[in-house]
Amino acid sequence: MPFIGKDWRSPGEAWVKTDEGWERKKNLEQLNRNIQNRLSLDSDGNADSSDSDSENSNTATSNANLQKRRDSTLWQPHFPITIKSTREVAGYNTISEAFRRLDFRNAVKDIRRFNYICKLIHLIISQNLTTLSGCATKVLFALLEEVAGQVASNLQNIHMLQAILHDLKKTMRKYYCWGRPLGSTLLWEQHLRTIERICLFASSIEIKEPKDDGSLKLTHLPAELIREILLRLCDYRDLISSGQAYDVMQALINEQHIWRRLCCFHFTRQQVRHALDTYKNKSGRPMKIDWQEVFHHLRKVFGLKEEYADCLFLCRHCRCLFWKKCSATARWMLLFSKT
User: Fold this and answer.
1) Tell me, what's the pLDDT at 164?
2) Which is it for the CA torsion 190, 192, 195, 196, positive or negative?
């Protein structure tokens, strides 16, 4: 027998139980329609234009594709932040709901958002793991398992996964109470099985050397092109690892130009000037500047600058979290289409 509340303003929404918890049915239906539209657009783009029968059919197909693009761009992952509590709206925000509404599990597969999501997971695990609710912890470990699967599929960013797992084990040992983490026994048994599965998955990742099929490799490139590749790297650890992998890269990394460009990228002119003044005052007389030493000195004093290709932003008008690549115009179209 259905329950009929006394409040006539109740939305009466239908909910569906998923692996990550309960989700509104209309959100899942909209997400499925968005995925289907994108898949159909990809299949239409790959099809040969010579298979069209007439001009009318081409016009109808283009109109249908335009409508699909409008539908796919109309819905963008966003999370409205509730500030005040009213009789119609409950004033609370949960991190598990934010992960679902912002579509973090599919965002892991986007190379522009992968580093940002890994950094966010790392911060939550190292600082706020013990304060999360059971549902949020379950969603977090499911997202971490998705990250491990993405790393294993493309064999990239293995060091980021290993750093997250190292801090996860360290945090778990730190907050053990009577031989286990504090909380529900059944829930943490499930979490521990998930963590063990992720660790086994990460330990089985192995980078194999590509087969020699006669195609060009990085070692066949001239030193000028390799230098340009090294100048695009913003992490000094990647530079050091590259030098250990190839002798030509090691010779290029020893050049002062690369470390000078790295200093200009991570630090401001005032910071670099302050380090140069300190470096000159050590000797008491002018001498050749070692830019690698200057960089490490600045790194220890000021830290490194972090930049991401895509990250979360907060709209001041609609109070919604959204991805940087998703335009605010699509969200406003979504709001006006409901009115």
Assistant:
1) 92
2) negative
Name the H helices within 204-327: 223-231, 236-245, 247-253, 256-266, 269-283, 291-302
Mean pLDDT of the residues in the chain: 77
Residues 124 and 99: beta-carbon distance below 8 Å = no
Residues 6+ apart with CB under 8 A from 145: 194, 197, 198, 201
Q: Angle at the Cα of 176 (from 171 to 179), degrees rounded to 5?
A: 140
DSSP string, 176-214: EETTEESS-HHHHHHHHHHHHHHHHHHHT--PPPPP--S
What element of type H or E holds 78?
A: strand 78-80
Residue with tokens 């599919």: 106
Residue matched to tokens 């000797």: 283
* Rounded (10°) angle between helices 236-245 and 291-302: 140
pLDDT value at 71 more than 70: no
Is the pLDDT score of 97 beyond 50? yes
Closest to 143 (Cα-Cα) out of 172, 118, 115, 169: 118
- Confidence at 34, pLDDT banded by 50, 70, 90: low
248 pLDDT exceeds 70? yes
And the tokens for 214? 């006669």
